[in-house]
Amino acid sequence: MTLEWKCREAELQAQLEELKFVASTRKHVDLTKMESTEEEKIKKMMELSTADFAPLKWLKVPYKQSGSVLASYICRRCHKPRNWVYQCTFTVNRKPASIKKAKGIPQTMMTEVEGPKAPGAMLTASGNRKDNNFTGMKRHLLTAHSNAYEEVYGNSTSIQKSVSLAQKTID
User: Fold this and answer.
1) pLDDT tens digits for 70-114?
2) What does the H/E/C string look like for 74-123?
3) Exposed end of the chain (fewer CB within 10 Å): N or C?
4) For residues 15 and 67, is the Cβ–Cβ distance under 8 A?
5) How many CB atoms lie within 10 A of CB 16?
6) CB contact burial 59-68 (16+ within 10 A = b; e otherwise)
7) What CA–CA distance (Å, rounded) separates 51 from 45?
8) For the segment 59-73, what is each residue's pLDDT rounded down to a tens digit?
9) Cα separation of 166 and 142, whole Å?
């Protein structure tokens, strides 16, 4: 990977130097007085008209991590000081190791609670505790909605069937 990156950097640097040269040699030329073929005039006209929009204006060469490493710099791959990340030799199965980015709530912000009845309790990382309050709440809401429907529209067996079917899917 480091070799590919260096090759790509060399290509971009060469392109940048070429564009700088073209921009520096560009002059306003009267194409009508120029003694050349029509194709050459068109080519020169295209070069002049696109020079303002050349990649020289927006092309960025990748940051070179070379030279001495600061004492405070720590490589994000191997977590060791004194080596640049692009020159890191940390590998897994002979391939450069990628670091998994942290996602979710950090462990330092979590607190353990006593018992599954605590509000906001969830399954721990060890998987030894389960909180069933959420499914109980769904069941309670379904029966409350079915009771309210029966009060407004009368006793309906289709509502009871849908509530019992919904309760089966929750379990």
Assistant:
1) 888 888 778 888 788 777 877 767 776 666 677 777 767 766 666
2) ECCCCCCECCCHHHCCCEECCEECCCCCCCCCCHHHCCCCCCCCCCCCCC
3) C
4) no
5) 15
6) eeeeeeeeee
7) 10
8) 665 666 777 888 888
9) 8
Picking from 23, 42, 24, the residue whose alpha carbon sits closest to that of residue 32 is: 42
- Helix 133-153 crosses helix 157-170 at what angle (to 10 degrees)? 170
Residue by residue, DSSP assigns the chain as -HHHHHHHHHHHHHHHHHHHHHHHH-----TTS--S-HHHHHHHHHHHHHGGGSGGGT--PPPP--SPPPTT-B-TTT--BSS-GGG---EETTEE--PPPP-SS-GGG----SSTTSTT----TT------HHHHHHHHHHHHHHHHHHHHH---HHHHHHHHHHHHHH-
- The answer for residues whose C-beta is within 8 angstroms of residue 107's C-beta and 6 or more apart is none
The type of residue at 21 is F
Contact of 147 with 163, CB cutoff 8 Å: no
Do residues 59 and 22 make contact, with C-beta atoms less than 8 angstroms apart? Answer: no
How far is the C-alpha of 155 from the C-alpha of 43, rounded, in Å?
A: 85
